[in-house]
């Protein structure tokens, strides 16, 4: 994969005519490395592209690199072999009077604007792992399912959101509902990223969690030990909210980076539960994790009470006291231990270093590797 991608890039460079030719890339951010000054973009139907940026890069619709992150949609203008000249954050607008801010969104969810339907307009597969409480999946590109999810009352308040300003599906849902005759429609353009940034509660589907009781997901039982030691969700770790509070105080005292033991990946999927989702222990544990920077933390709706009532997997006796988390790798990636084994054996292995010249000069490189 690495060699093929490198060959593709080199072939493109060799095919360039005399003189400099500017290029553009449009895709969603997969990964940003501020240290390496690089952005990896996922481009639909094509190989991922890695572009560099520097102090001369011009940013549009964002003050700088700190305001960007997955899965923002970017348009990057660059010359092959050089840092990007311009990076534009692509933003989708809504019709006048439709967009609402987070204060209005909260007021709606609190019932201050009457009955409503909250629609998550992202593709259906993204919904179960984390959604705004009370939302239902309303992906507009699936027209039949979309219309089926909407209420019969055409005057009912409809509120749609998706993956933030760079996600087109809020606007698509608004348009589809308008064409279907609905007259009271709003769009929360900040979407799930804006909701998470405000550290407001995010829920995850019990059915989804029941299929992911594995080492790639961290499940935290935030109840008192006296409760979790009797019965708990299968593969859950006992970590009472009071323990997380004490850890926060210790991190502050020792001036250490706040993180769960064994979970350095701040994008790890973490599901918190107590007896109910409104239980103080669940809310407090979620708040601690969000304060620590875990972006994909969520609360189990219905909590342990609904989980057991629905007959989902539970285990008797004390819950584990130690987290055993393993990041789920993307297709084609290998874990660090396997890489280390390959590096030691060297048999039939070709190592290609695709970092920048500056990174190699500063950090060195593997013996025998080829740098491109």
Please write out the topology:
Blueprint: H1 2-14, E1 23-33, E2 38-42, E3 49-52, E4 58-60, E5 73-78, E6 86-89, H2 102-109, E7 116-120, E8 136-137, H3 143-149, E9 157-161, H4 169-179, E10 185-187, H5 191-197, H6 206-210, E11 218-221, H7 225-228, E12 231-233, E13 237-238, H8 241-254, E14 270-273, H9 280-291, E15 297-299, H10 303-309, E16 314-316, H11 336-345, E17 352-353, H12 357-363, E18 370-371
Parallel strand pairs: 4-6, 7-8, 7-9, 9-10, 11-13, 11-14, 14-15, 17-18
Antiparallel strand pairs: 1-2, 1-5, 2-3, 5-6, 12-16
Helix pairs in contact: 8-9
The helical percent reads 25-40%
The secondary-structure element order is HEEEEEEHEEHEHEHHEHEEHEHEHEHEHE
Order of neighbouring strands in the sheet with most strands: 3-2-1-5-6-4
Largest sheet features: 6 strands, mixed
Q: Which class do the helix and strand fractions yield?
A: alpha/beta
User: Mean pLDDT, nearest integer?
Assistant: 90
User: What is the total tally of β strands?
Assistant: 18
Question: What is the number of helical segments per DSSP (H or I, 4+ residues)?
Answer: 12
Q: What coarse outline follows from CA principal-axis ratios?
A: globular
| Rg estimate, integer Å | 24 Å
Sheet-strand content, in percent, reads 15-25%
CA-to-CA gap between the ends?
14 Å
Low-confidence stretches: 1-18
Throw out a few tags for this protein.
372 residues, alpha/beta, 6-stranded mixed beta sheet, 4-stranded parallel beta sheet, 12 helices, 28% helix, 19% strand, disordered N terminus
Short description:
The protein contains twelve helices and 18 strands.
């Amino acid at each position: 994969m690495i060699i093929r991608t490198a060959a593709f890039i080199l072939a493109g460079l060799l095919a360039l005519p005399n003189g400099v030719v500017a290029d553009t890339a449009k895709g969603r951010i997969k990964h940003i490395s501020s240290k390496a000054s690089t952005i990896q973009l996922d481009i639909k139907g094509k190989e991922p592209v890695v572009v560099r940026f520097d102090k001369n890069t011009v940013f549009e619709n964002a003050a700088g690199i700190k305001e960007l992150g997955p899965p923002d949609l970017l348009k990057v203008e660059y010359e092959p072999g050089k840092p990007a000249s311009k990076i534009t954050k692509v933003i989708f607008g809504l019709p006048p009077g439709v967009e609402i801010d987070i204060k209005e969104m909260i007021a709606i969810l609190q019932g201050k604007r009457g009955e409503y339907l909250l629609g998550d307009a992202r593709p259906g597969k993204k919904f179960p792992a984390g959604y705004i409480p009370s939302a239902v999946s309303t992906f507009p590109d699936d027209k039949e399912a979309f219309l089926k999810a909407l209420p019969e009352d055409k005057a009912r308040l409809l509120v749609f959101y998706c993956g933030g300003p760079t996600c087109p599906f809020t606007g698509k849902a608004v348009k589809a509902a308008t064409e279907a005759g609905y007259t009271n429609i709003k769009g929360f353009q900040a979407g799930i990223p804006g909701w998470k940034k405000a550290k407001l509660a995010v829920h995850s589907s019990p059915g989804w969690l029941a299929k992911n009781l594995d080492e790639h997901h961290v499940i935290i039982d935030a109840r008192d030990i006296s409760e979790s030691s009797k019965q708990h969700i299968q593969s859950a770790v006992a970590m009472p909210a009071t323990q997380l509070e004490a850890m926060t105080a210790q991190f502050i005292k020792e001036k250490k980076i706040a993180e769960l033991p064994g979970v350095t990946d701040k994008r790890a999927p973490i599901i918190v539960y107590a007896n109910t989702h409104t239980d103080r222990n669940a809310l407090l544990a979620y708040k601690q994790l969000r304060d620590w920077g875990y972006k994909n933390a969520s609360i189990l709706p219905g909590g342990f009470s609904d989980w057991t009532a629905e007959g989902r997997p539970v285990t008797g006796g004390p819950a584990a006291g130690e987290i055993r988390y393993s990041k789920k790798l993307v297709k084609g990636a290998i874990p660090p231990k396997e890489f280390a084994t390959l590096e030691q054996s060297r048999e039939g292995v070709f190592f290609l270093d695709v970092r920048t010249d500056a990174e190699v000069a500063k950090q060195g490189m593997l013996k025998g590797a080829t740098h491109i």
